[in-house]
Alcohol dehydrogenase
Amino acid sequence: MTDLPQTMRAMVLTGHGGLDKYEWHEDWPTPTPGPDDVVIRVGACGMNNTDVNTRSGWYSKAVDEATTGGAYGEINDDDPTWGGAPLTFPRIQGADAVGRVVAVGANADQALIGKRVMVDGWLRDWSDPGNMDKTGYFGSEKDGGYAEYTMADRRDVAVVESDLSDAELATFQCSYTTAEGMLARAKVVAGDTVLIPGASGGVGGALIQLAKRRGARVIAMASEAKHADVARCGPDVILPRSPHNLRAALGDEKITVVADIVGGPMWPQLIDVLERGGRYTCSGAIAGPMVELDLRTFYLRDLTFTGSTILPQHVFHDVVGYIEAGEIKPMLAATYPLAELREAQAAFIEKRHTGNIVVIP
């Protein structure tokens, strides 16, 4: 095992609330690997909505508004995280860590030292790896990548061979595995037409690329100021973010799948435009979690709804394979120094950029 410094720089979350709940430390203890662990010197770490929602407590059922990134007046003590359980503080967030292995435990392959790896966001109980109830998230139930060093189980990392930079690689894990999981749950194939609200975000851009990879026709929805950026992902059609009449805006397009991370006021129109036998898949509700559903539309049109959160491990490895094969491209919007994580997250919340924001230790 390589000698490690005793302390490191880290951005530490001290509780639920606003951006002031982050504290910068230059003498935080460096993780020490157990038998099945590897320690990674972080080269870059991407930012995602889970970081924001966990920090603010948005996942609590006490919150019924859109994601704001600010502190909420009330959150329940027992359900403020993605899994509906309390979080232990202090916590280092950051699920999208990329870097080089610098130390390994006794059960890990020594040949990993020096290799560049990506970390799978999903933490599994390796005595029962398929059990969703025993699954956690990197940077939530375990310290993540907003630090100089992070630690992961040897079975949760994948060596990646790519000419992309660390910052570019740090755009993939959360956004692209989320998108791939949604499309898999909805069984998207060639011949489908997929409608994607919120297409200018990291998951939205990933959905476009991965749906096209499956041979589907893709219709993206985004604010008109971001249409040029969205176009680089290759959708067949781009619509405004919130058309007054979505059916009219779609014209003769027949929507067989809606892949949604937005929710909010547009939601009833999204469901109304689905063809008979269509599928709706969801992994977010940034515009608001409370929506209205006419159950007659649901059952009379034979629709299928799927939620998508915890993913089988092969999804992560599939995405790594797509990266190495050059089948998907990064959507790197901006990089910030780790010490400026508060500013980076403010930009992320305000959607100043199209694509993913990454911090560099």
